[in-house]
Specification:
disordered N terminus, 383 residues, 12 helices, two-stranded antiparallel sheet, 4-stranded antiparallel beta sheet, alpha+beta, Pdz3 Domain
Length: 383
């Protein structure tokens, strides 16, 4: 019994941390849809965190049902003329509306208002991330480590390029590098591309050609992780660590930079997957997110909140992909409607949503398959 309890403790902690983070992110995403819909005069029937049968809820004075549902892997805002949580229009309901009801109909609104309501969800995710990062930088400051090389891994891109221990990296492709952490920003989306590293060695500036490559590493849990790297290290506790305390205005700028970096690095990775430069085995789903959330939870609540910021950017970005069923798919349909002057017919829209559903389910299955080794580790008690 004690062995079973220990085996379950890890997954339970990870699951709790995951659902906490996901609930924060989903709530703000749906709140974005909700607020702009209300601003546009749309009648909202339901605001749900989770899918499926309702656990608990209440009705507000506008007639919206706020509820928590059993399947906590997302959420939705349902308008009065939706057939379902994916905001598919109910033509029968629209045709039978009274003038008063039509005034609150989402699908009877001008295309720009519908687009604004849909885009508000991802935008809310980016705003949430910006707010969290801003507060983080403002309260905790910015820690950075001097971009000096303490160790060069054998047979690595750095070793082949001629980098040596003691070198100070000052620029990559002509762009200044002020911290060791910035190196990964440059190399993370440059697999297979030759980059010019400018280093300072014994008072002299030297340019070296370095080509980042994908290497497999094993983390502290025994999981294999593929990373784009050049093979340089800083020793733990090395000198040259500085803390800078930015003001509120500068913290906003740093938050914007961090948010943009997450977007560009994610898109860069997906581009590399499409062109065969990187493996898709690093694509993860709820299990992997729960695993990361559980590890972060052991470091403190503030780190869970920061993870929520990273996840919020990812959710906002993914929802903008032009896949029917996602927000980006709706925006794609609205763009077509704006160009044509009329919406696509119901048959084409329904076909698009079915294809979108198939794509989303396929990606979820693929991501879950990638994460099975994590589930095996949890059940084995190593989590």
């Amino acid at each position: 019994m004690e062995v079973l309890s220990n085996a379950l403790a890890g997954p339970l902690l990870y699951g709790f941390a995951f659902f906490t983070v996901l609930t924060i992110v989903v709530f703000f995403h749906e709140l974005g849809h909700f607020l702009v819909a209300r601003w546009c005069g749309v009648s909202v029937k339901a605001f749900s965190i989770g899918f499926g049968k309702e656990i608990a809820g209440f009705d507000d004075r506008h007639g919206t049902r706020w509820k928590l549902s059993w399947i906590p892997l997302g959420g939705y805002v349902k308008f009065m003329d939706d057939e379902n949580a994916a905001s598919v229009p109910s033509r029968e309901a629209i045709d039978n509306m009274s003038p008063e009801e039509r005034a609150g109909s989402f699908h009877a609104k001008p295309v720009w208002q519908r687009a604004a309501v849909v885009a508000a969800g991802p935008i809310a995710n980016f705003i949430l991330a910006m707010v969290i990062f801003t507060i983080w930088f403002w309260l905790y400051g910015v820690f950075s480590t001097q971009a000096r090389v303490d160790e060069v891994l054998p047979d690595s891109p750095a070793a082949r390029a001629g980098l040596q221990a003691g070198d100070l990296i000052t620029a990559i492709e002509g762009r200044p590098v002020s911290a060791f952490e910035h190196i990964q920003r440059h190399v993370g989306t440059s697999v297979g591309q030759t980059l010019t590293f400018t280093v300072e060695r014994q008072g002299q500036k030297i340019d070296l050609a370095v080509t980042p490559e994908v290497r497999e590493q094993v983390d502290d849990k025994g999981d294999a992780i593929r990373m784009v790297m050049i093979g340089v290290k800083r020793k733990p506790g090395a000198d040259g660590v500085t803390r800078y305390q930015p003001g509120l205005g500068e913290s906003v700028g740093l938050a914007a930079d961090r948010t943009w970096f997450i977007v560009t690095s994610t898109m860069g990775y997906l581009k590399d997957v499409v062109f065969g430069k990187q493996s898709a085995d690093q694509l993860g789903g709820p299990i992997r997110i729960a695993d990361v959330a559980g590890r972060v939870a052991t470091q403190g609540v503030e780190y869970i909140i920061q993870l929520a910021a990273f996840l919020s950017v990812s959710v906002g970005l993914i929802n903008l992909f032009p896949i029917p069923l996602l927000d980006g798919g709706h925006l794609m349909f609205y763009a077509i409607e704006a160009v044509r002057g009329r919406p696509l017919n119901e048959r084409h829209q329904e076909m698009g949503f079915r294809i979108g559903l198939a794509v989303v389910l396929s990606l979820m299955i693929f991501a879950t398959f990638n994460d099975l080794h994590i589930l095996k580790r949890w059940l084995g008690g190593a989590g």
